[in-house]
Amino acid sequence: MHVFHTTDKAHHGKTDFDILESTMCNCKRLESVSSNTTNDQDSTRPKLDKRPTVGSLNETVTDSTHHGEAIGVDGNVKHENGGFNKFPSDGLVQDPLHKVGENSIEDEAWNLLRDSIVYYCNNPVGTIAANDPSSTSVLNYDQVFIRDFIPSGIAFLLKGEYDIVRNFILHTLQLQSWEKTMDCHSPGQGLMPASFKVREIPLDGDDSATEDVLDPDFGEAAIGRVAPVDSGLWWIILLRAYGKCTGDLSVQERVDVQTGIKMILKLCLADGFDMFPTLLVTDGSCMIDRRMGIHGHPLEIQALFYSALLCAREMLTPEDGSADLIRALNNRLVALSFHIREYYWIDMRKLNEIYRYNTEEYSFDAINKFNIYPDQIPSWLVEFMPSKGGYLIGNLQPAHMDFRFFSLGNLWSIVSSLANTDQSHAILDLIEAKWAELVADMPFKICYPALEGQEWRIIAGSDPKNTPWSYHNAGSWPTLLWQLTVACIKMNRPDIALKAVQVAERRISKDKWPEYYDAKRARFIGKQARLFQTWSIAGYLVAKLLLANPNAANIVISEEDSELKNAFTCMISANPRRKRGRKKQSFIV
After folding, report:
1. Distance CA 417, CA 136 (A)
2. Burial class (CB in 10 A: 0-12, 13-18, 19+), 432
3. Nearest CA to 447 among 489, 499, 501, 384?
4. pLDDT tens digits for 361-385?
5. How would DSSP label each residue in 133-165?
6. pLDDT confidence of 480, banded at 50, 70, 90?
């Protein structure tokens, strides 16, 4: 293993900071650490609570982002704004601005979140997936997952603790350029890892010293061996949130960061066999990372893709080499928004239209473009669809519509403006109308309804973890609270999120912050759920912070601009329902 090993295939521009971080970091085991801690620590465990001591940081480190920190012999950390954080004499870093008590759920959550922090060379770089002391099987829950860290990162940003987020962004960026192979095959450049782990190994030639190494997983060790499509998209979204929250744009303007953004975009925008503007992915390539019949064009990926495109367009620096990429990006934004709004949207009116579809239409003016058979409409949908409200379906492929309601995809479609204003309000109307189904005793159903019986055996492959109303098969996930809150704030309906948070507060702390809940009404703690799940904790904290300060939600919200609206209007006028001819049109923003 190497630290930030790079290949010729994917070279990021080097800055002073990169050169500093690319060198092997030798972290000697400190004399002040107790023998119990030393003996209990091995190379397979995450580096938790290894906070820097004053003696190990008596030097000045400044990076090229002009956001450096000068650490003096007195233990003071000087920030760019002139403020100081004081390291206590015992070597443990404490939070001088936000004293943590023991009397509230929020205080408990902040204590647990900080206990989950992972350190690399004495610097915080992320949070582990779960810190469950009762679990006998760690699996990969002791790793830092890209998608899992997003609510943690947002929580730290809202709390004014920026260093951990900046470190996470830059360290995961360096992992992007690693050479990764599985069975002699290498995936495309730009792929971000699903997770990484900080390992501590003995330093060659010196048994008394150790060094930290980052060990990433790009899916080659994951269950099912699926590459994480959403990791790079979430990374771009967090990068933009960091810049908007801190006002420090120097990170996103770095040469290596700009290169990383472009690599992700080129991977997503690469030409293929697909006729649709949506991203074609395999099953299990996002939050639902096990077989659940979402292969094809799942809504969650499309919403994150659209959001990442908007964020990237906002952050890319204008230069000659970026013109073609920005042009392709703009064209995809228009095509993707049209495709999702027109063909994924369903409400009672659209349901009646599908019910009366003609099939086997061979023409350029076909109404039933994807040859959807009316008999595909499931019986549960007739009862589930309210007279007021609607949602975006989970997937669309030739002769197939996945009518399941997927929460993250719908909520992030609101946040990113992939859904228009009327559709966004309709989604929230449906959530209110179907509160008993989607929230009940614990927010929020990851999807609805569950696959059961023969459908579960065929589509989910009889997965014993995804049994009906459990885990990804319509389990309830508290981490979705923060996406729900952002969506509600964007549409000026925070009362919905507040009500959901109040439901969660009745039991989530008593239940020890489970990963997910089981049963139709979420009355059981998930049968295989880890306790003290970090993104359950962080999701709750972000929801509380945003409800207290709704304007802060703007760091992740994307508003549709006028140019996109005008281009979308042109696409609507060319809709087949308005008798589009064979002439091909392109719309360049």
Report:
1. 43
2. middle
3. 384
4. 787 777 888 888 889 999 999 999 9
5. TT-S--TTTTSEEHHHHHHHHHHHHHTT--HHH
6. very high
Tokens describing residue 33: 């650490």
How many angstroms from the chain centroid is the CA of residue 562? 27
Closest by CA position to 147, among listed 545, 484, 539:
539
User: Whole-angstrom Cα distance, residue 243 to residue 555?
Assistant: 8
Distance (Å, whole) CA 479 – CA 482: 6
Q: Cite the DSSP H helix spans in 368-406.
A: 379-384
How far is it, in rounded angstroms, from Cα 298 to Cα 292?
Answer: 11
Do the beta carbons of residue 377 and residue 519 sit within 8 Å?
no
Is the pLDDT at 58 greater than 70? The verdict is no
Coil, helix or strand at residue 80? coil
Supply the DSSP string of 459-521, one letter for each residue.
HSTT-SSS-TTBTTBT-B-GGGHHHHHHHHHHTT-HHHHHHHHHHHHTTTTTTT--S-EESTT
| pLDDT at site 226 | 80
Cis peptide before 444 (omega within 30 of 0): yes
Question: What are the strands, taking DSSP E only, across 218-364?
Answer: 345-347
CA atoms within 13 A on the CB side of 422: 6
Length of the chain: 589
**Sequence-distant (≥ 6) Cβ neighbours of residue 311 within 8 angstroms:** 236, 237, 239, 240, 558
Q: Which residues of 278-296 are buried (b: 16+ CB within 10 A; e: fewer)?
A: bbebebbbbbbbbbbbbbb
Instruction: Report residue 139 CA to chain centroid gap.
Output: 21
Residue 134 phi, psi dihedral angles, 5° rounding: -85, -10
The β-bridge relationship of strands 400-406 and 390-397 is antiparallel
Does the pTM surpass 0.90? The reply is: no
Each residue's pLDDT tens digit, 189-224: 888 999 999 998 888 777 778 888 998 888 777 666
DSSP 444: -
Whether the Cβ atoms of residue 411 and residue 485 lie closer than 8 Å to each other: no
Q: What is the phi/psi pair of residue 54, to 5°? A: -60, -40
Instruction: Give the pLDDT mean for 552-562.
Output: 91
Name the nearest CA neighbour of 340 among 295, 386, 389, 277.
277
